[in-house]
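YM 10:42: DUF3052 domain-containing protein sequence, as discussed on the call
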Amino acid sequence: MVAAGDAGKAGVAEKLGIEPGIVVQEIGWDEDVDDDVRAAIEERSGSDLLDEDADEVVDVILLWWREDDGDLADTLLDVRSPLADTGVIWVLTPKTGRDGHVEPSEIAEAVSTAGMAQTSNISVGSDWTATRLVSPKSANTRR
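YM 10:58: structure's back
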């Protein structure tokens, strides 16, 4: 039987759209990340998270982002090159009131500048919020 806490952790991976067999790359890891979220993703996908230096095509990019990490739009443009056409980027930011919190308006502006579309926001763990980004459909049809 699965403990209630474990079910919640596994549920995070499902909410992030993680399916068995998909490839997930993690960018922006630091000591403040939620290891339970990372473990749930690895367990559900069936493989380890790829690090920032991986050069294979990925289905999901997990981008841990804090207020002082630099220019989000530039980072989004840099990190999305290995992303599959139907892939998604999850930008994980500290929740309101936490160190490193990023205002939603800053995320929206960066997403627009990077030519991506923001589709949803979810809570992941007690300290992090995740924002789902995709390439606009019109961009995919022009490739």
